[in-house]
UniProtKB/TrEMBL annotation:
Domain Transglutaminase-like: 164-229
GO terms for biological process, alphabetical: proteolysis
Entry-linked SMART domains: TGc
PANTHER family noted in UniProt: BLR5614 PROTEIN-RELATED, SLL1049 PROTEIN
Record flagged with keyword Glycoprotein: no
Organism lineage string: Bacteria, Pseudomonadati, Pseudomonadota, Betaproteobacteria, Burkholderiales
Keywords for this protein: Hydrolase, Protease
GO MF: peptidase activity
Species in which this protein is naturally found: Cupriavidus basilensis
Pfam families recorded: Bact_transglu_N, Transglut_core
UniProt key word Lipoprotein: no
Annotated protein name in UniProt: Protein containing transglutaminase-like domain, putative cysteine protease
Length: 274
């Protein structure tokens, strides 16, 4: 599938901010699951571009105020191709020549957002007792979706996997982080994925999150699983960034001086081109 995507983020402030610094992971990279045909970013400042240790394209910019509004826009065309492998739905995500990235084993380490408490390990262990096969991973994902029920606006960006697990509800971010936490606790490298999910029936689109699980660290083979939709990633998934948790793959992060009374509005449009 080929998609035309437009993502607009608008911050409004009751009192003007004096200065703000932003870090964006809003530019998808081409890789084994997609080819970026064109992409643009529009921000009120000069962009600098770099690659982080996970392979993500990272842009930074600074805005000098005072200003009551800040608008960030991103968009372009991405061609998505799900993995096709004789041995299963796996894909190799080794870095291209000349690029250095962290080892898949780095994703075994926990973070404050993805630390697994003992009750989470007890919950997940039976699903993978016979081995970390794709059916077993999908069963774990479905178990997590039943344990952490999807409920809009029930958590926020600072909610940890253990908090969402105890609460019993959350959004795609929480379900993905619980999956990541459980897999790591049972010895499987796993990473958080931010991106988009094309649902033609949705009246309002939002950014999405799912999990990559490493099935062979030496060969850098991964399997991508969407807990929220109970499926492997497919032609509906457009990837933006990966990281050890939400904070390391967040589309937009920033700090500011001043600017009380913040209001955030996000508009996302995804148009299939074929």
């Amino acid at each position: 599938m080929k998609y035309k995507i437009h993502h607009k983020t608008v911050y409004r402030y009751a009192e003007p901010f004096l200065r703000s610094v932003h870090e964006l992971r809003l530019a998808p990279r081409s890789g084994p699951l997609q080819a970026v045909q064109q992409w643009q970013l529009s921000v009120p400042g000069n962009l600098s571009e770099a690659r982080d240790g996970f392979g993500n394209i990272v842009h930074s910019f600074t805005v000098a105020g005072p200003a009551h509004t800040l608008v960030i826009e991103a968009g372009g065309v991405v061609d998505v191709t799900p993995p096709v492998d004789a041995h299963g739905p796996f894909f190799c995500d080794a870095p291209p020549a000349g690029e250095t990235r962290v080892s898949p084993l780095y994703y075994l380490g926990g973070t404050p957002l993805t630390a697994a408490k003992p009750e989470m390990v007890r919950f997940a262990a039976p699903y993978l007792a016979a081995g970390a096969t794709v059916p077993a991973l999908l069963a774990l994902a479905n178990g997590i979706a039943g344990r952490v029920r999807y409920q809009s606006d029930s958590t926020d960006v600072d909610t940890s996997a253990s908090d969402a697990f105890a609460l019993g509800r959350g959004v795609c971010q929480d379900q993905a982080q619980v999956m990541v936490a459980c897999c790591r606790a049972l010895g499987m490298p796993a990473r958080y994925v931010s991106g988009y999910f094309h649902d033609p029936a949705a009246t309002e689109l939002a950014s999405h999150a799912w999990a990559d699980v490493c099935v062979d660290a030496g060969k850098e083979l991964w399997c991508s699983i969407d807990v929220t939709h109970g499926c492997l990633s497919d032609a509906r998934h457009i990837r933006l960034a990966v990281g050890r948790d939400y904070r390391m793959a967040a589309p937009v992060r920033g700090i500011r001086e001043g600017g009380s009374g913040e209001r955030l509005a996000v508009e996302i449009a995804i148009l299939p081109l074929q």
